[in-house]
Amino acid sequence: MRVGAVIVTYNRRELLKQTLAGIEGQTRRPDHVVIIDNASDDGTDDYLAGREFSIPTTVRRLSENTGGAGGFATGTQVAYELGLDAMWLMDDDTVPQPEALGELVDGLGRASDLMGYLPSFACSLVLWKDGSLCEMNTPDPTWDFARPLAMGADFTLMKSCSFVSVLVTREAVHAVGLPSANFFIWYDDAEYTQRLSKYRPGIFLPSSKVNHLLPQNRGVNFGDVNDGNIWKFEYGVRNQIASARVFRSPTLAASLVENMTKQLTHSGVPWRLRMRLVKAAAKGVVFKPVIEQPKSTR
Questions:
Q1: What is the chain's mean pLDDT, rounded?
Q2: Is 75 within 8 Å of 8 (Cβ atoms)?
Q3: Phi, psi of 77 (to 5 degrees)
Q4: In this structure, are strands 202-212 and 156-160 parallel, antiparallel, or unpaired?
Q5: Could you tell me whether strands 140-141 and 202-212 are parallel, antiparallel, or unpaired per DSSP bridges?
């Protein structure tokens, strides 16, 4: 299996350095690295232009910031064009531990032998920088997640996960298309991996570990909404409602409403910001995720 690591970066040069060091320090190195620079203006382009890479690397600098969703759509397309068999997707604040990729690749092989099919993706155990569980990146299991455990496996079945260390197979990308670029940010990873799992379930390998260098270890909580971050929550709400409509899954919409209600109750979030969230949900009813098929030169 020829693997390409795909990193999307935007104005986090110092964190990107740690991500690249982690990738180059893998016991099972990727065969290629694809870096998508989302029009950073912090000197990232100069750093990448002057850096020596020990793994074949393609750097694609975009003319504008297309968000994480646009970056991963482009990065997956570039890796697909290179003829790679799997794409290892991660943000620029992800630091993979040395065995991370090897465990994902080996796990896919074991799963294929045991289950009789190649899973669409394999995701890592995401830890915060102090080694505790990263609250932001807990994968979502399938209803029969324990089926492989009953067969003696060391992995479970997953319905969705984040783009913080997930290895996506080429044939799955061929089957379901690229990540939806017009999501821009938030919930793009959940939508894409759910789309992948409808083709074939993914797997979770706790033996593959990465550290997510978030400023604080906290998941998405609507009680944290303020004037500075409301725009991200608006994208997340719109994108989840749109996904619920596309997947014909009322439970997705219901879970969002439940979380918003619980987390906003007794919070100090102003009503004007709460109304913006409601309007974002209304936009999601008519918003159409764009799904493009990958193009290949192979």
A1: 96
A2: yes
A3: -65, -45
A4: antiparallel
A5: unpaired
What is the set of domains in the chain, with CATH numbers? 3-212 (3.90.550.10), 222-286 (no CATH)
Q: Tell me, yes or no, if the pTM score tops 0.90.
A: yes
Q: How would you label 163-183 residue by residue, b for 16+ Cβ within 10 Å and e otherwise?
A: bbbbbbbbebbeebbbbbbbb
Taking CA atoms, 89 is separated from 19, 43, 123, 273, in Å, by 12, 23, 10, 33
Is the Cβ–Cβ distance between 120 and 202 less than 8 Å? yes
H helices of the chain, in order, are 13-24, 44-50, 67-81, 100-115, 147-150, 170-176, 188-199, 230-246, 250-264, 271-286
Give the tens place of pLDDT for each residue, 36-66: 999 999 999 999 999 999 999 999 999 999 9
Q: What is the pLDDT of residue 189?
A: 97
| 81's tokens | 């064009």
* Rounded Cα distance, 185 and 69, in Å: 5
Residue 111 pLDDT > 70, yes or no?
A: yes
Supply the DSSP string of 269-287, one letter for each residue: --HHHHHHHHHHHHHHHH-
Beta-ladder partners of 6: 34, 89
pLDDT tens digit string along 64-76? 999 999 999 999 9
- Please state, in angstroms and as integers, the Cα–Cα distance from residue 35 to each residue in 1, 58, 90, 138, 218, following that order: 20, 6, 10, 25, 27
How do residues 224-274 score in pLDDT, each as one tens digit? 999 999 999 999 999 999 999 999 999 999 999 999 999 999 999 999 999
Instruction: Give the residue among 10, 298, 11 at the shortest CA–CA distance from 173.
Output: 298
